């Protein structure tokens, strides 16, 4: 009897098949890559436009663990930091300060997740090894002093670091 090979199709991951507003809470939360960039303080300078000029700083919210790049009080964070924004699909439309690497922003703009995202790599460390997270680059707001001494541009950029074991570059 001849062997019949049946191609096993790998199902597409949820972030490719569901809209952001169709995702379960667990799926939504898993989109966060743990970079910590959104937890850096920002400054907005008046420049004559409605939105002003957004400047990132390397000064992290006092609740951010600077090594793990995760909120130390995530569930109760708004009790401690009342202006911490809860991301929702609707809120994404109003927010202009998410970094270009952010999974929520990327998917909302119709882009895919990049190789270092833990959902793609299967490894929560790749967001750090790829130079995407704030690990080693952020300072705590209690130590920092004036925010305008800490303006940096790297949170607004995507590192072009290659995958460690392939010649493939991240694509945008
Ligand atoms: S910038 Fe986006 S992906 Fe990174 S920690 Fe914030 S919400 Fe998560
Ligand atoms: S309260 Fe937590 S989630 Fe909010 S900005 Fe601070 S560290 Fe980030």
Written overview of the protein:
By secondary structure, the protein is α+β, with helices and mostly antiparallel strands. It has one domain (23-156). Helices cover 21% and strands 13% of the residues. The longest helix is centred in the N-terminal third of the chain and has 6 residues, at 25-30. The mean pLDDT is 91. The protein binds iron/sulfur cluster (2 copies). Residues 32-38, 87, 98-99, 102-104 line the site of one iron/sulfur cluster (SF4).
Bound molecules: iron/sulfur cluster
Q: Please, what is the average pLDDT?
A: 91
Radius of gyration computed on alpha carbons: 19 Å
Kindly give the count of domains. Answer: 1
The quaternary organization reads as single chain
- Helicity range of the residues? 10-25%
Order of helices and strands: HHEEEEHHHHHEHE
Short note summarizing the structure:
The chain is 21% helix and 13% strand.
Helix and strand topology:
Layout: H1 14-17, H2 25-30, E1 40-45, E2 53-60, E3 64-65, E4 70-71, H3 77-80, H4 89-92, H5 103-108, H6 118-121, H7 126-129, E5 139-140, H8 141-144, E6 151-152
Parallel strand pairs: 2-5
Antiparallel strand pairs: 1-2, 2-6, 3-4
Bound molecules: iron/sulfur cluster (2 copies).
One iron/sulfur cluster is lined by residues 39, 61, 63-64, 71, 77, 81, 84.
């Amino acid at each position: 009897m001849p062997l019949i090979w049946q191609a096993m199709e790998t199902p597409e991951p949820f972030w490719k098949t569901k809209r952001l507003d169709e995702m379960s809470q667990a799926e939504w939360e898993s989109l966060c890559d743990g970079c910590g960039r959104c937890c850096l303080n920002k400054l907005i300078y008046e420049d004559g436009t409605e939105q002003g000029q957004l400047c990132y700083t390397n000064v992290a919210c006092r609740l951010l663990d600077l090594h793990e790049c995760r909120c130390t009080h995530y569930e109760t964070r708004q009790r401690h930091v009342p202006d911490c924004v809860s991301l929702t699909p609707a809120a994404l439309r109003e927010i202009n300060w998410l970094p270009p690497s952010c999974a929520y922003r990327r998917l909302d703009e119709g882009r895919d997740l990049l190789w270092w995202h833990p959902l793609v790599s299967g490894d929560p460390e790749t967001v750090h090894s790829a130079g995407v997270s704030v690990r080693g680059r952020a300072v705590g707001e209690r130590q920092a002093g004036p925010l305008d001494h800490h303006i940096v541009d790297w949170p607004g950029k995507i590192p072009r670091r290659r995958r460690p074991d392939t010649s493939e570059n991240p694509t945008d």
